C-alpha cells in the first residue's frame, strides 16, 4: 500500500500505480477493473525533475520493509 500526499497538500491518496507524464506525476487508483481514475500528484519544472521524484518514491518504497509506505510530494 502506498499513500502519497499531493504536492499542494490538499489530498492524501492510496495509489496503485505512479507514472510520469511529461512534467506531471500521476497516481492511479483502481476500485475495480471497470472503475479506474487518476489524479495529478505533482507538477515540476521539467520531465527530468519529475523522473527524479519518481525515483525518490521508488527509493522510499525500497526502504520500507512493511505493509505500507508514505511519501509527500516535494514542492519543487
Summarize the model shown.
The chain is of the alpha+beta class. About 20% of the residues lie in helices and about 40% in strands. It contains 1 helix and 6 strands, in the order βββββαβ.
Protein described:
With 76 residues, the chain is of the alpha+beta class. It has one helix and six strands, in the order E-E-E-E-E-H-E. It has one helix at residues 47-63; strands at residues 2-5, 12-15, 17-21, 24-30, 36-43, 69-72. It is globular. The termini are far apart. The model has no long low-confidence stretch (mean pLDDT 90).
Cα distance, first to last residue?
Answer: 25 Å
Q: What is the mean pLDDT? A: 90
In terms of quaternary structure, the protein is single chain
Q: Structural class, from secondary structure content?
A: alpha+beta
Number of helices: 1
Overall, the morphology is globular
**Spatial ordering of strands, largest sheet:** 2-1-6
The description of the largest β-sheet is: 3 strands, mixed
Could you give the order of the helices and strands? Answer: EEEEEHE
Radius of gyration, in angstroms, nearest whole number: 12 Å
Share of β-strand residues: 35-45%
Percent range for helical residues?
Answer: 10-25%
Total strands: the figure is 6
Low-confidence sequence ranges: none
Amino acid at each position: 500500500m502506498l499513500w502519497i500526499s499531493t504536492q499542494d497538500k490538499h489530498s492524501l491518496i492510496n495509489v496503485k500505480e505512479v507514472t510520469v507524464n511529461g512534467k506531471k506525476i500521476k497516481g492511479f487508483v483502481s476500485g475495480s477493473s471497470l472503475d479506474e481514475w487518476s489524479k495529478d500528484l505533482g507538477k515540476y519544472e521539467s520531465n527530468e525533475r519529475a523522473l527524479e521524484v519518481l525515483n525518490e518514491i521508488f527509493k522510499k518504497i525500497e526502504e520500507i520493509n512493511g505493509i505500507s509506505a508514505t511519501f509527500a510530494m516535494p514542492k519543487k
